[in-house]
Each structure stands twice: as C-alpha cells, then as structure tokens.
Design goal:
single chain, about 120 residues, little secondary structure, two-stranded antiparallel sheet
Length: about 120
C-alpha cells in the first residue's frame, strides 16, 4: 500500500518541478519602484570623505530597456511569446551548404600496342 503511494508522490514532485513556462520578467515588481535617497545632510561630528574612488550610482537611462518583449513564436505561427532580457536569444542554425560533387575522374586512355611489344 505504501509503495504505490510513495511512487505516486515522487512522480507528482518530479512533474511539478517541470512546471510551466512562467516568465519572471513580466509585470512590475516592488524593486522597480525603488527610489534613490539623497545623501545625508550635515550632521554634527560626521564628515563624509570626498573620494574620487567612491562608487557613484549612475542616473537612470533616458530610454530604459524593457525587461521583456513579445515576439512572434516561430514554433506556433500566429502566436506571440515572451522573451526575457536575461535569457539569451535562440540561435538560428544556418544549414551547411551542400558539398560540391567530386569531379569525375578522367577516363583511362586505351593502351595502344607499340610495334615490337608483346602482350
């Protein structure tokens, strides 16, 4: 009784690990709404070093890159699929050109008997 139950449970766990294709890059997330805080103002007794090697946070880009985009699905014409920025694009394999046919070997010349030779 326990063996079939354990087998069914293992199969369910393994199949759930192969779950659907959920794209984690679709939608807005809390971290995307984070605001940069200004550096602290003058505080008595605290002096902030001004270092050229200090890490600077760059300003946000003028034209931000989307985290995902909808592209035509080559496997299902007419459908769209989501392509995430952090997933490399699919490679298109170019078919190799056919090898040229080997050149025909020249036909052997018929041997002509020379006078005085015996075959």
């Amino acid at each position: 009784m326990r063996l079939p139950l354990a087998g069914t449970l293992c199969a369910a766990v393994l199949l759930s690990a192969c779950g659907g294709v959920s794209r984690h890059c679709v939608g807005e997330f809390d971290y995307q709404q984070a605001q940069t805080l200004p550096p602290p103002g003058k505080i008595e007794g605290l002096s902030l070093p001004d270092s050229a090697s200090a890490l600077q946070i760059p300003p946000p880009p003028e034209n931000p890159v989307p985290y995902a985009r909808e592209i035509p699905d080559p496997e299902n014409p007419g459908d769209m699929r989501t392509e995430c920025l952090d997933v490399p694009p699919r490679l298109v394999v170019q078919p190799e050109p056919p090898e040229p046919a080997p050149e025909a070997a020249p036909e052997p010349k018929p041997e002509v008997e020379q006078p005085g030779e015996k075959s």
